[in-house]
Design brief:
five-stranded mixed sheet; single chain; about 550 residues; 3 helices; 43 strands; mainly beta
């Protein structure tokens, strides 16, 4: 017969009969520092410091815990603040307890500490900086049917393997205070359907959610800077990833993050600046990706081996695309590159494994085709100049005379109104918004205009016709000025209800003069848009005035 610890025999012999029941000294290294008191069916752990480690109660030939013979009768377990370690096998087979609270002071939890607690359904986890569990066996495991997990508001670190194989947990809310989710923390939680990760989370460890086969959607919050290998592999129901990490610099190394997961939709947030290596590598169900304008760099293999990826949009600020970002994306048929300056690619490495780049249509901003045709690698694509997607010029006409002109981009020529065809002139004075490559124009009747002036810092509008200026912008895909106005004034009494425009930086600007009670911007699916930066898409602007409510459409390209 083996002996775990000579001290254990001494402790088991030390049983004091008091008015409160039995008491054992179970501290380590000083036994007296921690006591266990049994009062009726309640076991209370008190003191300061670590509990000693025990031997599995499943080994009948060896000494185990002092309460080995009575653990089935214990229905309440209290661990007081001050305890720093829960020992190996300490509460194994406590089949009568239904809930447990882990105090803030705990810094480590031993092997199988709560295994085979067959009635334990609720865990209130408050340990602020518990950085270690096990390491050989799980603290709870598959034989403890934890269903409800409450993580405290002061918890900063969720340790390795904490709820690995907790098969009955269906949802987890990780509060904002948590900074680290360590490796395998929620691995193999096969019934876990919903996970909320708090806004302060900085690190997600390797295999943290490996095998969570019921999980359908995950949101990576803005502060995450590191995601470990295989963090979400084998999540076979995970179809949607909302990726909001602003500057995550590392995403896996030896293994990809979402391998053998269902990922069909990747939503990249508007504050993301850096897309890390391997982020969506081997997401074979992904068919389209939009990299928003705020992203500046896409790191190596970020979308590699996405063999069903057909369509990619690259934002206007993206200037750095690293090795094999789209490697082996053999189904790729369309790329829309919004940057007017082609990214420097020294070889075919970015698109390695794609043999016929000429079969892929590359849409580039108006006026950029020549630059792309001269750029290495890009010149091998089927390049299309998206002239029709950009407003070419804003022209103010008075009779047959051009009184103001503002081009959106640096262009070679501007299409003006032809006086020989006066039928297209709606009135003696008109604001004409031309679209590149199209002789037609969106028009706003401004027959009562007295003043319309543009400058680098101000747009001043006085005395309008009954038409709202918003009509001029209702179907325009893009509008900008060389001198983007930073303020708008509405002097005097006029019928202007609202003005809305997109700046060349991509910001939506909406100004409302007196008489407008409220205005709300909605996405096309009815969700309210509150962000200052508005991504590409169709939006609905609802304006409530003293005369009633009207709705207009805005298109952001």
């Amino acid at each position: 017969m083996r002996t775990k610890n000579v001290l254990l025999a001494v402790v088991m012999a030390f049983i004091a009969v008091t008015g409160f029941g039995q008491t054992w000294q179970i501290g380590s290294p000083n036994a007296a520092d921690v006591t266990a008191t049994l009062d009726g069916n309640t076991l209370t752990i008190s003191g300061t410091g670590d509990m000693m480690d025990f031997i599995s109660t499943d080994d009948a030939d060896e000494a185990s815990t002092p309460w080995d013979d009575i653990h089935a009768t214990i229905t309440s377990l209290i661990i007081n603040e001050g305890i720093t370690r829960i020992g190996d096998y300490a509460f194994m087979n406590f089949s009568g307890i239904t809930s447990i609270t882990i105090p803030e002071s705990i810094t480590s939890i031993g092997n199988d500490a709560f295994s085979k607690c067959t009635s334990l359904s609720t865990v209130n986890y408050n340990a602020e900086n518990c950085t270690r569990t096990g390491p050989s066996y799980l603290p709870f495991g598959a034989d403890t049917p934890v269903q409800t997990l409450n993580i405290g508001n002061n918890v900063k670190f969720i340790p390795n393997n904490l709820f690995n194989h907790s098969l009955n947990i269906t949802s987890v809310v990780i509060p904002d205070n948590v900074e680290t989710i360590d490796y395998w923390a929620f691995g193999n939680c096969t019934n876990l359907q919903s996970v909320t990760i708090g806004n302060k989370c900085d690190s997600i460890g390797h295999n943290a959610f490996n095998g969570c086969s019921s999980l359908t959607e995950i949101t990576i919050p803005e502060k995450v800077r590191s995601i470990g290998d295989a963090a979400f592999i084998n999540c076979t129901s995970l179809s949607t990833v909302n990726y909001n990490a602003e500057n995550c610099l590392h995403a896996g190394f030896s293994y990809v993050l979402f391998w053998n997961s269902l990922v069909q939709t990747a939503n990249i947030g508007n504050n993301v600046k850096f897309i890390p290596n391997n982020l969506f590598n081997k997401c074979e169900n992904l068919t389209s990706v939009v990299i928003p304008d705020n992203v500046e760099k896409v790191d190596y293999w970020a979308f590699g081996n996405c063999t069903n990826l057909q369509s990619v949009t690259i934002g206007a600020k993206c200037s750095d695309i690293e090795y094999a970002v789209f490697g082996s994306c053999t189904a790729l048929s369309t790329i829309k590159n919004m940057n007017p300056v082609p990214q420097s690619i020294s070889s075919n490495d970015v698109f390695s494994g794609i043999t016929n780049l000429g079969s892929i249509t590359l849409h580039v901003p108006f006026g950029s085709q020549a630059a792309y045709e001269a750029a290495d690698v890009w010149k091998n694509f089927n390049i299309v100049d998206d002239a029709d997607d950009d407003v070419m010029a804003v022209v103010v006409m008075k009779g047959d005379a051009v009184v103001f002109q503002s081009t959106v981009l640096a262009i070679d020529s501007v299409i003006f109104y032809d006086p020989a065809n006066p039928a297209v002139i709606p009135s003696n004075e008109a604001l004409l918004i031309y679209k590149a490559g199209d002789t037609s124009f969106d028009k706003l009747l401004l027959s009562d205009i007295q003043k319309l002036s543009f400058s680098d810092i101000n747009l001043s509008i006085e005395k309008w016709n009954a038409e709202s200026l918003l009509y001029a912008f209702s179907d325009v895909k893009k509008l900008g000025f060389y001198g983007i106005p930073t303020s708008i004034s509405f002097p005097g009494q006029n019928k202007l209800e609202v003005i809305a425009y997109f700046t060349m930086a991509g910001d939506l600007v909406v100004k409302s003069p007196a008489g407008v009670k409220s205005l709300t911007l909605y996405s096309i699916d009815g969700k309210i848009v509150t962000a200052r930066y508005v991504p590409t898409g169709i939006y609905i602007l609802r304006v409530e005035t003293s005369q009633g409510v009207f709705v207009k459409k805005l298109i952001k390209h």
